Amino acid sequence: MKITSIRTEVVYGRRKRAHGRVAATALGPSDVSEHALVFMETDAGIEGIGEISSVFSRRGRLLARDVDEVLAPALIGFDPFDITRINAAMDRVLWSTELAKAGVEMAVWDIVGKALKVPVYKLLGGKVRESIPLSYSIPFGEPEEMAAFAAKRAKEGFRTVKVKVGQSADRDVAAVKLVREAVGSAHRVRVDANMAWRTAKEAIAIIRRMEQYEPELIEQPLPPRELDALAEIRRNIGIPLMVDESVWHPRDAMEVIRRGAADIVNVYVTESGGIQNAAKTFTLCEQAGLPCMIGSMPEFGVGTAAQIHLGIAMANLGPDSDTCGSLYHEADLLKTPLRFEKGHAYPPEGPGLGVELDMAVVERWRTPPGDTE
Questions:
Q1: pLDDT at 372 over 60
Q2: 43 phi and psi, to 5 degrees?
Q3: Of 53, 66, 102, 308, which cross-links 274 as Cys (Cβ 3.0–4.6 Å)?
Q4: Are 322 and 293 within 8 A, CB to CB?
Q5: For the sheet containing 344-346, what is the strand order?
Q6: Going by CATH, does the domain composed of 3-118 fall within 3.30.160.20?
Q7: Is 163 strand, coil or helix?
Q8: Residue-range domain boundaries for the chain
C-alpha cells in the first residue's frame, strides 16, 4: 500500500461562550478555533483523516500550507505502515512545526488501523483502561462566575476542574478559593497559569497564597524555556508542578527530567508531532517516575479521538486529562459524536481512529463565523 495524495481543508469551529462572553485565558481570548483537516489517500482505496490543531499564533491556514507545500510532496509513495520512516521524512523536510506533522501522522495511524480492521489503541498495545477521567477548564471571569461555572461542571460528572489564572494575584487567589468552596473537597481543583507569571519569585508568592485551598497541582507558571526557574518554583512550593508548553517533543521531556523542572508532564499529540512521539514521552517520563496527563488545544472530534486512543493505551497516565476538546465547541464535525459520560471519555471502537466526518458540517465550517462568501 502506498500514499497517493495528501490534502488539507481549513475549518473554523465556534467556541462555547463562558460567563456569557468570549472565553479567555492568559493566552488571550478565543471565539473561534481555526484548525485544519488532513485527508490522505492510498492506492488501496483506504482514506485516513487527521486534524491540525493550535491555540498559538501559527494556526490552521499557515499549518495547512506547511502540509500542502512541504510535507505532502515528501510523503507520496510511502507505505503508511512505515510510521517511523514517515516521521523521519517529515523531520528532514520541515524543522519544528510539530502541529502540522501531528495532523499528517494522525491520518497515517487512521489508515493503518482501517487496513488491519482494529482501533488505533490496539496498535499502541491495547487497553490499559476502559475510559479516561476528565478535567474541565474554567476560563477567566469574575471569581464568582468562575465558581458557578465550576459547580456546573462538577454536577455534570467532572471530578477535576482547572482554574485558569493570570488575571491578577488577588483575583486569581479569590477564584481558586471560591472554586474550591463551590466544588467541595470531593473534587480536585488544579491551577493553570499558561505561562502568565514573570518570575519564579512572583509565582512562588502567588502559589503559596493558593496552597491553603489544596490545589491538586500548578501548571506551567513560567515561559517554556525557563527550566531552572521552574525547578526553583518546584523546590519552594508544597504542591506538584506540571509542565505543559515546556514539552513539545521527547527531547524536551528529557531536558525537563534532567533539570528537575517538573513533577508531572502534560503531553499533547499535537505538540509532540504525533501519536508516536507522544507515546515516547509517556515512556520516558514513566522511567523517570513522572506521571503524565494528556492536554488539549482544544481539538475537534478527530484530534480528540486521537488523544483518547493514546490515553487508553498508556500505562503512565496519571492525573485526569483534557481529552474532551470537542466539548468546548458549540458543535462538532463528526457524524457520530464521541462518547463522554459522567466526566469520562471513551474510545471509538471502529477501525483506525473510529470517526467519520459529517461533510455538511465541514462545508459550513470552511467559512469563518461572521464572514460571508
A1: no
A2: -75, -5
A3: 102
A4: yes
A5: 132-133, 344-346, 339-341
A6: no
A7: strand
A8: 3-118, 123-346
- CATH of range 123-346; options 3.40.50.300, 1.10.10.10, 3.20.20.120, 3.30.450.40: 3.20.20.120
Percent with pLDDT over 70 in the chain: 99
Across the beta sheet with 292-294, what order do the strands follow? 135-138, 160-164, 188-192, 218-219, 241-243, 264-267, 292-294
Provide the CB-side half-sphere exposure for 271 (13 A, CA): 24
- pLDDT class for 157, splitting at 50, 70, 90? very high
Place of cell 505502515: 81
| DSSP, residue by residue, 192-234 | E-TT--S-HHHHHHHHHHHGGG--S-EE--S-TT-HHHHHHHH
Residue range 73-113, pLDDT digits in tens:
999 999 999 999 999 999 999 998 999 999 999 999 999 99
Read out DSSP for 19-43? TTB-EEETTEEESEEEEEEEEEEET
Alpha-helical runs (H) found in the chain: 60-66, 72-75, 83-93, 98-116, 120-123, 143-155, 169-183, 200-210, 227-235, 250-258, 269-272, 275-288, 301-313, 359-364
The separation between CA 102 and the C-alpha centre of its own chain, rounded to angstroms, equals 12
Sort 157 into a burial class: Cβ within 10 Å, 0-12 / 13-18 / 19+.
middle
Report the alpha-carbon distance of residue 34 to residue 15 in Å, rounded: 10
**Does the structure show a pLDDT above 60 at 373?**
no
3-state secondary structure of 262: coil
pLDDT of residue 210: 98
d(CA 98, CA 176) in angstroms, rounded, equals 33
From residue 334, give the alpha-carbon distance in Å to each of 17, 32, 40, 275, 348: 21, 18, 17, 20, 12
Rounded to whole angstroms, the Cα distance separating 333 from 285 reads 34
Identity of the amino acid at 153: R
